[in-house]
């Protein structure tokens, strides 16, 4: 066992005792919250929609009814200036003599705030996993100039491909495996476009998720240069598309792919050109984060954040049919859970020593946008944020004898999770899908980048094996009156335990492993 993990476990025995009254689950109110937020009337809670208006009003009224103070000075709302970008979905991608159709073969979008992005005979280069990681002695961009070019990259990282723990982190995805990183690094290298090759196992979801997530309106924060530093075209292609492109280049994609997972891989110009026009309708608008504050007593300037993102995928119209992505589990279940926790702590006879912010951010589904804005513009400096607890989908089925831990040896918050689970007679179970990179896929990651340690609570499909395949980011994620909710009750009780412990102590949970997160926290003197 490594030293960091040992210290984390030992810390369990020195955590302060819980002082609040036991958590009591109000199932009827919880059901009503989920049912309302996931109703067709709320239109899938898409940012900048009528669904947002209804959602923000609902949350603000709930915080007011509880008697919580505004979370952002004199307002419950934090304005988040974003661009709403809707790409014309009639686009086609041409590579060499091959023609591919949007949606079925590929997806493409941009975060550059421009009416049109065009690839005009852009040279196509295969750059393996598209990773530049000095600490792993790995650079897929070595000795190649990709300025203005279209790069094809593989999803995930070489560790997953080889299952060798000596390569990156083996089966567990690193941030280098996330699609967001692929786009960021390609932009730093000067590329014009990125086409990520989709395969279900390394991506952790099917093509339907890629298509549903990228063929509708998308959102982005906007910098003073209209995001010109971002990659021009953010694309995905089907595995079969990659095979056809490589065949046209005289190569076998599946054989070449194997070489990309080996140290010393060298990028391969495919001697083909890409042509694509992405036409955009752009609206600059304001979305909102929403939060209510329970002020602390003796340590009121030290804040905990309890959070769940309020948005989902909204609605689309395809072939004359309206499809509403209600996101009942992802993440109306989490928002309703935060409301339950807020009511519980507000009803306590004695307020906690530290302040607790109960929050719901916008536009998580399109790149953690609300969380990024909050992290860059917090209501108090990040050095005053003790930790960030995040619910992103709850176990709406029966209770289980374990709780999932995402990451291991990452921060001392793992000790709080261990302690709370033990009090319930439950075990802490390692993330069964570390290859999915869930550590980097929800709002707590934006706060981690600013040095604030966090815990994520996610139970997507734990008791419903059909969820990921047929409901996640699909129209089937609806409220169901037959949900048992035993899992919700036990997890909210566990989270309540952790909040109470943190809110009534002087502890500042620390990062355990060396990382950019730890370095950033050190800048705040923590």
Short structural summary:
The protein is of the alpha/beta class and 526 residues long. The chain contains 16 helices and 21 strands. It starts with a helix and ends with a helix.
Structure, explained:
This protein is of the alpha/beta class and 526 residues long. The protein is built from 16 helices and 21 strands. Strand 15 (314-318) and strand 16 (321-325) form a beta hairpin.
List keywords for this structure.
two-stranded antiparallel sheet, 15-stranded mixed sheet, alpha/beta, 21 strands, disordered N terminus, 526 residues
Please report the total strand number as a whole number: 21
Radius of gyration from CA coordinates: 23 Å
State the share of residues found in helices, binned by percent.
25-40%
Mean pLDDT figure: 93
Separate helix tally: 16
Structural class by helix and strand composition: alpha/beta
Major sheet summary line: 15 strands, mixed
Parts with pLDDT < 50 across at least 5 consecutive residues: 1-17
How many angstroms does the end-to-end distance come to? 25 Å
Beta-strand content: 25-35%
Q: Shape, please?
A: globular
